[in-house]
Amino acid sequence: MLGTAAHYGLNVSDMETALSFYRDELGCTVTRRFPISDVQGTIIGVSGVEGEIAFLDADGFEIELIAYDAPPNENSNATASLHDGGVPHFCLDVEDLDACYDRLGSERFIDEPQQVNDELRIAYLRDPDGTIVELADRTA
């Protein structure tokens, strides 16, 4: 039987670039950071993995960043479209979507914030690796 969601895991190409986005730009807090172990390679079925894992708190929602330094990997999210099958996104609530849009810069977003209904405005942007992040303002 399922419990509550524990975290959302993202493979990133460079840990420092990802932290700059999630920590410095979106305001997440790093809660722990550690090197990838042989166990991680066993779990994903890839031998010889090296890299680092960081967990971040996004106001009670946990994000796991995984940076594999070896073996080499490819970024499949960078060119994916939102309507393609298997393309993930996750949503973070924000208090002022317009302020986020202005602070992060319109070029980061797929489009301008949109009014979905009387109580919800959303906008999508991509992180440095192309992962789609939805920002939702539920006070709109």
UniProtKB/TrEMBL annotation:
Single GO molecular function: methylmalonyl-CoA epimerase activity
GO biological process: L-methylmalonyl-CoA metabolic process
Domain VOC residue range list: 4-138
Classification via InterPro entries: Glyas_Bleomycin-R_OHBP_Dase, Glyas_Fos-R_dOase_dom, MMCE/EMCE_epimerase, VOC_core
Pfam families reported for this sequence: Glyoxalase
Record's keyword terms, sorted: Metal-binding, Plasmid
UniProt cross-references to PANTHER family, sorted A to Z: METHYLMALONYL-COA EPIMERASE, METHYLMALONYL-COA EPIMERASE, MITOCHONDRIAL
Protein name: VOC family protein
Species of the source: Halocatena salina
